[in-house]
Amino acid sequence: MGVQFSDEVKLWEQVKVRVLNASHLTLAYPALLLGYHEVAEAMRDPQVPVLLDRFLDKIVLPLLEAPRDVDLVDYKNTVLERFSNEAMHDQLTRIASDSASKVPVYFTTTLQEMLARGVDHRIPAFTLAAW
């Protein structure tokens, strides 16, 4: 690991917000309803990684512009591996806290682009319903 300097800060910000942060919320709300407490615990449920893969592959990644030399699929896989890391002990209640301020920031751009392009909206609708 190290520091990476970039003049594409906006693109990097969008990748982080729309892949990592939005995935955290897409995972957290249904996982809490299923009775899970930690991210890695929820990732052991076979349905949760499938939900995240479909959300990212079908909705988020096609709408993103990647910074130079960034493979969005690799980034996605790194995020999902991190979510599965048992040593992290990341609490779902922490992720879900202050949702009223997080949902607009992490979902708005994706939702606007998705609706403008006629992309299937079932997964984001499910996430918002679970919220």
Describe this entry's structure for a reader.
The chain is an all-alpha fold and about 130 residues long. It is built from 7 helices and no strands. Helix 1 crosses helix 6 and helix 3 packs antiparallel against helix 4 (about 70-85).
Indicate the topology.
Blueprint: H1 9-33, H2 39-43, H3 47-63, H4 72-83, H5 92-96, H6 99-117, H7 122-130
Helix pairs in contact: 1-3, 1-4, 1-6, 1-7, 3-4
Poorly predicted tracts of residues? none
Rg (CA only): 14 Å
Helix-strand sequence: HHHHHHH
Overall 3D shape: globular
Sheet with most strands: none
**Secondary structure tally: strands:** 0
Structure summarized in a few sentences:
By secondary structure, this protein is mainly alpha-helical. The chain is 70% helix and 0% strand.
Keywords:
single chain, 131 residues, mainly alpha, 7 helices, 70% helix, 0% strand, globular
